[in-house]
Amino acid sequence: MAYFIEDSCISCGACESECPVSCITAGDKAYVIDADACISCGACANVCPVNAPKEQ
Fold first, then answer.
1. Measured between alpha carbons, how far is 11 from 40 in angstroms, rounded to an integer?
2. Residues 14, 51: contact at Cβ < 8 Å?
3. Could you say which architecture CATH assigns to the domain 3-55?
4. Residue 29's pLDDT is what?
5. Of the four, 13, 28, 34, 55, which is 20 to 30 A from 21 by CA?
6. How buried is 22 (Cβ within 10 angstroms: 0-12 exposed, 13-18 middle, 19+ buried)?
7. How far apart are CA 28 and CA 56, in angstroms?
8. How many angstroms separate the CA atoms of 29 and 7, rounded?
9. pLDDT per residue over 34-52, tens digit each?
10. What integer pLDDT is reported at residue 34 of this predicted model?
11. DSSP string of 5-40?
12. Mean pLDDT of 12-39
C-alpha cells in the first residue's frame, strides 16, 4: 500500500531526497506523495522527524 503524508508535515524536505522513485513533491502546505508511483518502501517514514508519512 502506498504512503501518504499527514497534516503534521513541517515541510522540512527530508523525505523528498530519500525517496528512491522521486514520488514526493512539495505541496502548498506540506509535501505530497504520488500514490501511483509510491513503492511503499518506507524510506520517507524512516527519516521524517514528525512521523508524517503513513501507510494507507
1. 20
2. no
3. 2-Layer Sandwich (3.30)
4. 93
5. 28
6. exposed
7. 21
8. 8
9. 999 999 999 999 999 999 9
10. 98
11. E-TT-----HHHHH-TT--EEE-SSSEEE-TTT---
12. 97
Confidence of residue 28 (pLDDT cuts 50, 70, 90): very high
The answer to whether the beta carbons of residues 55 and 40 sit under 8 Å apart is yes
First-last CA distance in the chain: 6
Give the model's pLDDT for residue 18.
97
Instruction: Tell me how far apart the 2 most distant CA atoms of the chain are, in Å.
Output: 24
Cross-strand bridge partners of residue 3: 55
